[in-house]
Amino acid sequence: MAGPRRRTVRDLRRNNRATVLSKLYFDGPLSRQELGPLTALSSGSISNVVAELVADGLVEEAGSVDSDGGRPRTLLRVAPGSGHVVGVDVGETRVRVELFDLSLSELARVDAPLPLAAPDGTYDAHEIVRLIAGGLTEVLAGTGVTPASLIGVGIGVPGIVDASGASGAVVHGQTIGWEAVPLEAMLRAPGELPPQIPLFVDNGAKTLGRAEMWFGAGRGARNAVITLIGSGVGACVIADGVPYQGSSSSAGEWGHTVLQVGGRLCRCGSRGCLEAYVGAEALLERWREAGGSWTAQDEEGALAELLAAPDTGQLLDETAEFLGAGIADLVNLFNPERIVVGGWAGLLLGPRLIEPVRRAAASYALRHPFAQTTVELGRLGADAVTVGAATLPLARFLETGGAERERIVSGASWMG
User: Fold this and answer.
1) What's the total number of domains in the chain?
2) Which Gene3D superfamilies does the record match to this protein (predicted)?
3) Do 301 and 153 share a structural domain?
């Protein structure tokens, strides 16, 4: 039986770089003197690591602050232009591709509507690959950014993502008719994405969860649930600061927990799912059944018309109760300190529904755990899935102390 792997000087150097780079990214700008106690590294190690990161172009000076009786202290930050990341949101109505610098400032964006689904509700995976590849080409061409400066492309998709196989991420998207679609292999096919670019694929609700935990309403929480309410419904469960994946990465399919046995037919083929009552597609269908109609050509516009209509109060009250009951389930199962309601439909409905949702959740949840939980709206807007997707390659960049960027720039191949 092989013993534990011994740590090498190279491992220590990489870990020190990762520690400093992450601290500067999330808490910077910081001075060298501040980095010492924040990282538990010696002043000599800080000086060496900072010198390396500056020489590599990953860290830059960001002004100075006065010190007590001494020379001003130089502030340091991660250089925003030292690399670029792309986030892709494969939604259920469109594909959005966004290019960011390392501060996650948007540089370019392309939106492309999804082609019509087949009669059985299946979306053509080859067509979606074409939209992703075309969107990447367009955002790069519009900014002059080259593939060589890309740290990676993160992609959020509807459905369960299994990345355990040799061919990369495979997507099981039951509601869009995808059964074991080898999305990463398809994107790696000749003529699609440049072969040297690292790819990261995850469920869209989980990418939204990462974005809200890093930058939004989840920041500072150790145990939280970030929900995504769009055409469908999903969630990202954060346990002790780490996204909970389950045995096969399918944890968080909250939208397909049963709210009513034998209830409304859900897109997944089952009945009574939460998604069949609070997802935007289902909510609009319930409005249609009640005699409502809309003129908008897309779901977002149609949902806005529903909210403005004078005769939808009862429908919205019912939706708030259904959603509150679903949130109560999250409270009882996971005992989170925070639940965040996100997704484009969740944010559109939120101002009208958040208070009745809280009241309904309180009435269905156990009193003690609910008293320890706050229910909040997401803070990152409709771009949260795309931003979260972009954090997938960014997280690898930080974890490796910038080594992934150096490997890409040097032309070496990337191994997932």
Assistant:
1) 3
2) 3.30.420.40, Winged helix-like DNA-binding domain superfamily/Winged helix DNA-binding domain (1.10.10.10)
3) no
Are 138 and 263 in the same domain? no
- Which string of b and e fits 89-103 if b means at least 16 CB within 10 Å? bbbbeebbbbbbbbe
Residue 411: helix, strand or coil by DSSP? coil
- Asked whether 160 and 203 are in contact (CB, 8 A), the reply is yes
The residue among 78, 105, 134 that closes a domain is 78
Cα-Cα-Cα-Cα dihedral sign, residues 251, 255, 260, 263:
negative
Q: What is the pLDDT of residues 118-163, one digit of tens each?
A: 888 889 999 999 999 999 999 999 898 988 889 999 999 998 999 8
Q: If residue 161 lies in a helix (H) or strand (E), which one and from where to where?
A: strand 160-162
Look at residue 411 and tell me whether its pLDDT is greater than 60. Answer: no
Specify the residue for token string 């150790």: 222
Task: Please say whether the beta carbons of 194 and 148 come within 8 A.
Answer: no
- Contacts of 6 by beta carbon, 8 Å cutoff, 6+ apart: none
Within-domain flag for 214: no
pLDDT digits (tens, 9 = 90+) for 323-350: 999 999 999 999 999 999 999 999 999 9
Q: Dihedral angle at the C-alpha atoms of 148, 149, 155, 161, nearest 10 degrees?
A: 60
Same structural domain for residues 160 and 97? yes
Single-letter amino acid, residue 40: A
Residues 395, 357 contacting (CB under 8 angstroms):
no
Averaged confidence pLDDT in the chain = 90
Shared domain check, 21 and 157: no
Q: Are residues 250 and 367 in the same domain?
A: yes
pLDDT of 167 > 90? The answer is: no
Domain range for 30: 9-78
Instruction: Convert the pLDDT of each residue in 200-236 to its tens digit.
Output: 999 999 999 999 999 999 999 999 999 999 999 999 9
Give the C-alpha separation, 313 to 311, whole Å: 6
What is the per-residue pLDDT across 49-96, written as a single tens digit (0 to 9) for each? 999 999 999 999 988 887 766 678 899 999 999 999 999 999 878 899
Beta strands in 271-409 (DSSP E): 338-342, 374-377
CATH number at residue 136: 3.30.420.40
The answer to whether residue 211 is domain-embedded is: no
